[in-house]
Amino acid sequence: MGIEPGRLQFSWISSAEATKFVEVAQAVTETVKALGPNTHFVKHEAKVA
Amino acid sequence: MKVIYIEKAQWASGLEKAGDSFRLWGPVRRGQFYAFEELAGGQVPALDFRNTRLSAKGLVYPQSEKMFEYTLDPGQPDHDLLKEAQKDYSPRAVLGIRPCDADAFELVARNFDTPEYQDPYWLRAREAVTLVGLACAAPCSTCFCTSAGSGPFSTKGLDILLVDSGGNFLAQVATPKGEAFAQAAGWRQPADDAAAAEIDRQRQVAEARIDSHVATERLRQQDTLTLHAAPFWDDVAFACINCGTCTYLCPTCWCFDIQDETHGRQGVRLRNWDSCMFPLFTLHGSGHNPRGQKVQRVRQRFMHKLKYYVDKYENGIQCVGCGRCVRHCPVNIDIRKVCELMNSYTLAGDSCAVVS
Amino acid sequence: MRAYTEKIREIARRLLEACTVERVLGFRRGSVPMMNAPCFVKTPAEAANLVWDSNCGINLANYLTSRSEKIGIFAKGCDSRNIVTHIIENKIRREQLVIIGVPCHGMIDRHRIAAMADGEIREVVEDENNIIVQGDGFKKVHNRHDVLQANCAVCTHRNPVIYDELVADLVEEPGDVDRYRDVREIEALSAEGKWDFFDDLLHDCIRCYACRNACPLCYCPTCFVDESRPQWVGKSQDPVDVRTFHFLRAYHCAGRCTDCGACERACPVGINMRVFTKKLEKDCLEKFGWEAGLSLEARPPLDAYRPDDPDDFIR
């Protein structure tokens, strides 16, 4: 779609897997931070005439 | 009407000069079709087109247009105020517009510029634009402009009409705006009477080439409710997929929808073209939709163009005969056929009243 | 094709005379070249209006949604696959339909032929192998294989997959067709390259929704772009909104699209939005071995769960 790899992530975490949730949340945050602010699919104001 | 010669050798240099005081727009080839775009310095419009895919209406009346904007940021001096959106209304010239599309501006003015209401966005953009038209020497088989009050050499709505005569353009200067543009381009060589005769000759040839004619003379006298209840609508509407191709390609469809969009602490009010083909067009806040069925929407489009408008404005049909909807409808719904049905409709039994 | 037309009229007349069906769904000759219009035939006499040639690219399954009558329908390979999808999705019942299969030789690309002509096209006729295009002062003969709709050129299901009778003998299905070269080319682009490619692809979109409305899969009572409470997508020409519409629509067609080409054919500004649906079609084939609309028995991949479903994208 033109979104950088890493910005969109999927995981399957059971409510009993608190440790996995923390790990995934941290990993996702780090990856996205490294990519910097998203510039695609962001609409600050309609670009029209 | 004043006619001047423009040698084709002076065409590009004239446009270059005019570009100092006008923003220039013209047809540009985009893939399989032509579209009106702003011309870069030195770029000449592509005049080898039959017509642009979309009409020129969007140049004065953009598909999406900002009306107002606001900010709630207290750091801004004009915070919490609804302000009119700033636009560029500096002079602009549209080159190569076809006579039907120029006539459409006159037609839609009856909606945007009335004694009661004047649409400021449309009016300012219309005032800023000079229309330099290109006569149609070779109309398409789907063109029926001469049945719709326009014509391949009509100057209605135009400031200048260019007629191609080989090495020259013969330019009919129809208005003071056209005069000003010709001045800016440095085109001032007056033409003789032969030029006017040549234009007239070409006009007759072009008009004779139009082989699509639509009868409209009975629309006015038809009873509105009888037409509304006519049995042909189901058949007319059957194939329709209710897309917006006809309305969005049409130079005379003028309906719009107003939307507010908020982004953080600021926002805009927009207006977008709308289409009576879409169910959302008439959806009420209550959830009720008076035109919830496809057949009702199709009927509305044709009744508006060919009956309600005819009755209200007493100025012919709401159509200039450009034929775009005929050429591009994905399922071949043909306004010429529908017009024929509406114009010729008689209640069964009317024509042979039983005398006992 | 003339043989097809005669057979089609004969079958429609027979079905209507015997009251086997109440209506027959087919095509009648359009008012401009390369354009036939879908029509509902209600009486045996009207069957004489039916035609068949290479301009029947509109997918007739689109006209079946939630109908209650008993209907005879002429179905190419793709139409028949969409009929199967409609039956699976409870949009029509099999018992309501008499499906007359039309083995297909491919439909022609009216946009491309018009763009290739040296003027306005006044008449297009065809014989077995050629498409003969005529206009003011020009005549061009195209080999029909060179001017097929892009989806027809890579079609591998020309024969109807479900039918009660056939208009003609089944045709040979083309062998080694590379259906997804265009998709692979886009897949090979960088993220930024993809973004720019889609930007250019959708530049001319006017949001007329002809693609959506020509599609037999798009039968939602209210499309997400038309929802106003809540409003999911802005309604202006803003490029993010335009792109959101196209992407989401494509995802709604995942595992359902038969690549009938109705969307691309209907588009008034020549956008090839099939690249979106084809990517999903390719994924369904590669990951689930699935092609839409081939069987009334199998459940679509997004409608079924299997323990061995591929899930390597999930952490």
Structure description:
- The complex is a heterotrimer of chains A (49), B (356) and C (315).
- By secondary structure, chain A is mostly helical.
- Chain A is built from 1 helix and no strands.
- Chain A has one helix at 18-35.
- The longest helix of chain A is centred in the middle third of the chain and has 18 residues, at 18-35.
- Chain B has 2 domains: 2-209, no CATH class; 224-346, no CATH class.
- Chain B contains 12 helices and 12 strands.
- Chain B has helices at 11-18, 57-60, 99-112, 120-128, 176-185, 193-209, 224-228, 233-238, 245-249, 294-313, 324-328, 335-344; strands at 2-7, 23-30, 33-38, 64-71, 83-84, 92-97, 129-134, 160-165, 168-173, 189-190, 256-263, 266-273.
- In chain B, helix 1 (11-18) crosses helix 5 (176-185).
- Chain B is globular and about 65 Å long.
- The mean pLDDT of chain B is 95.
- By secondary structure, chain C is of the alpha/beta class.
- Chain C has helices at 2-17, 77-88, 110-116, 150-153, 181-187, 191-201, 210-214, 239-252, 262-266, 274-288, and strands at residues 23-29, 36-41, 71-75, 97-101, 121-126, 130-135, 138-143, 165-166.
- Chain C has a 5-stranded mixed beta sheet. Chain C has a 3-stranded antiparallel beta sheet with strand order 5-6-7, with no helix packed on it.
- Chain C is globular and about 60 Å long.
- Chain C starts with a helix and ends in a 27-residue tail after the last helix.
- Chains in contact: A-B, A-C, B-C.
- The B-C interface holds B 30-33, 35, 50, 53-54, 63-64, 138, 140-142, 238-239, 241-245, 247-249, 257, 259, 261, 270, 272, 275, 278-280, 283, 326-328, 330-334, 336-337 and C 30-32, 35-40, 58, 62-63, 111-112, 114-115, 119-120, 122, 136, 204, 206-210, 212-214, 222, 226, 228, 234-238, 265-266, 268-270.
What would you call the quaternary organization? heterotrimer
Number of strands of chain B: 12
Percent strand of chain A:
under 5%
Kindly provide the radius of gyration of chain B, computed on alpha-carbon positions and rounded to a whole number of angstroms.
23 Å
Order of helices and strands of chain A: H
Low-confidence stretches of chain B: none
Report how far the terminal alpha carbons of chain B are from each other. Answer: 62 Å
> What structural class do the secondary elements of chain B suggest?
alpha+beta
Main sheet: strands, sense, barrel of chain B:
8 strands, mixed
Tally of separate domains of chain B: 2
From the alpha-carbon coordinates, what is the Rg of chain A to the nearest angstrom? 15 Å
Q: Kindly state the number of beta strands of chain A.
A: 0
N- to C-terminal distance of chain A: 26 Å
Succession of helices and strands of chain B: EHEEHEEEHHEEEHEHHHHEEHHH
Counting DSSP H or I runs of 4 or more residues, the number of helices of chain B is 12
